[in-house]
Amino acid sequence: MSLLSCESLHAGYNGKTVIKNISLSFQEGSMVSVIGPNGSGKSTLLKCLGRLIKPTEGRVFLDGRSISMLNSSEIARNIGILAQSPSAPEDIPVHCLAAYGRSPYKKIMSSFTKEDREIVNWAVSAAGLDDKRHMPIGRLSGGERQRAWIAMALAQQPKILLLDEPTTYLDIHHQFEILELLQKLNKNCGLTVVMVLHDLNLASRFSGRMIALKNGETALDGNSDEVVTEKNLYDIFRVKSRITESDGCRTALYTGVA
Amino acid sequence: MKSYTEQDNRKKYMTGGIGLILLTTGICVSVAFGTVSISLSEIFGIFTGANEGGMYHIMMNIRLPRIITGALTGINLALSGAILQSVLKNPLADPGIIGISAGAGLFAMAVMILLPSYTHAVPPAAFTGAILTSLIIYLLAYDGGAHPLRLILAGVALAAFLGAFMTALMVFYSDKVQGTVNWMAGSLSGRSWIHVRMILPYTVLGLFGAVFGSKYLNILMLGDDAARGLGLSVEKVKFIMTILAALLAASAVSVAGLLGFVGLIIPHITRLIVGSDNRLLIPFSAVFGAITVIFADTAARMVFSPYELPVGVVMAFLGAPFFLYLLKRRTR
Ligand SMILES: Nc1ncnc2c1ncn2[C@@H]1O[C@H](COP(=O)(O)OP(=O)(O)OP(=O)(O)O)[C@@H](O)[C@H]1O
Ligand SMILES: [Mg+2]
Description:
Helix content of chain A: 25-40%
Radius of gyration of chain A: 18 Å
Distance between the termini of chain B: 35 Å
Bound molecules: adenosine-5'-triphosphate, magnesium ion
CATH superfamily of chain B: ABC transporter involved in vitamin B12 uptake, BtuC
Number of helices of chain A: 9
Number of strands of chain B: 0
Strand content of chain A: 25-35%
Structural class of chain A: alpha/beta
Number of domains of chain B: 1
Structural class of chain B: mainly alpha
Strand content of chain B: under 5%
Largest sheet of chain A: 6 strands, mixed
Largest sheet of chain B: none
CATH topology of chain B: ABC transporter involved in vitamin B12 uptake, BtuC
Distance between the termini of chain A: 41 Å
Oligomer: heterodimer
Number of strands of chain A: 12
CATH class of chain B: Mainly Alpha
CATH topology of the largest domain in chain A: Rossmann fold
Helix content of chain B: over 70%
Number of helices of chain B: 13
CATH architecture of chain B: Orthogonal Bundle
Shape of chain B: globular
Largest interface: A-B, 41 and 25 residues
């Protein structure tokens, strides 16, 4: 049985449908990229999967149970979600931001336990921010801030992590840093990762499965060999490209717009 | 959960200590000075029961209830502002600016002018006005979720609208507006133990509610999506906290009229000192709110003694320039 799945999902804003009839399922331990042009509905899909918005039709299942039947703390203990550009007060230190990840485990009056603290410490280290743990997030670089948010999501100890463009605004070094971190968590901890990425080359390098959306519908779903082809890139992004293969990875070299 | 800045504990204790010293000083100064001065030894005498003459009357029945009413008003307005600023994620939010006070004011004023013999109906009327206004703001701004900026803009428009109603009432009933002019500006003149009893339950409720809610306000400040992702019922928390803020503002309006700027500047200054963690921001705002109103009211009584200014005038003199300074800082 798949960990997270959706069935003929429709969703939109103010009565306007944005994603149409999407059915997907994500296996435990997989690492999946969602790609597609601006406005194709990637964020909307992710928000539906993470129940930040309600679908107008169709259902999302977590471990075979419809998430509309689950209480929101229980969902939060299973699904971590990072929105496209999160913001928080600048003076929150890294470990305090990470500590918010424990809130789905807290009853109204219960306090922070030693175990909670250990999990937060682990999350901060896993995100590679050990030496910055007391630093306010306003004083971090863009990449470090992104990792601080990832630390928060990790402290949630979710089985599945949904990330919307976790590498935007980052230089190539920091992009790799984030993706290698996610890959490590995926390999070592069995964390299921579903992420929206714009860089197809990174997506094909770091994910076993790629899903392409176009106009709110699933256009392609497969491994990078199947998805990253000259014809597909032309159909989906309207770009001309040449695909090369090096280092076991398919790499697109773009040569112009169609 | 720990508060943001463990290593800054000393700063917090110092801020708290200074706050308490200021509060005590404020109360003493405010008790001592006025048209009649009361010396420290006389105050001491009153407390020990040695002095029971006219000074006793002035202190126990005139100054003290007024000071306490002022302090509670300051607490309620500062809490209301702190809550609204976190819920709306906007440091310029305050019950006055987003129209809640105007709603409370219009209803209270209607009672004062149209039903002058029903003074005890003023607080319930103010609550009705404040809650109705909050609901209308929500309705106007709701669009599959209450977006903070839309809430504020709807509130500002509604505040202007309700203000016009108040002006109209004052024009049509110009023979009955004597008391209301002071009240429109925000005044603590002649406040007695009745007013203390009127506002105290709301201060207690508000303090409990705000302290209890502070950890949810913290999560809310991570943004709606992140908060929902952490399992928080975002709309529910926002709604409950807004109603609490409306109750606090309405109770302040009932006893002190349209006293502005306290809810705006106090949480803001407090945030500059203790940071944005609501678990500190809320209690410290309450303390500083009390201090500010006590000092402002003492100044209002003293500056043109024996004439008295409404405390709201003093707050506006201090608050308006500070508000402009905030705007300038934010747009820079
Ligand atoms: N909050 C919103 N309210 C109204 N319409 C929205 C909202 N968010 C997105 N949309 C609309 O939904 C469509 C899909 O948006 P979505 O954010 O899902 O695209 P995306 O694939 O994530 O794009 P991008 O690559 O630019 O992030 C767009 O046409 C957008 O205008
Ligand atoms: Mg997007």
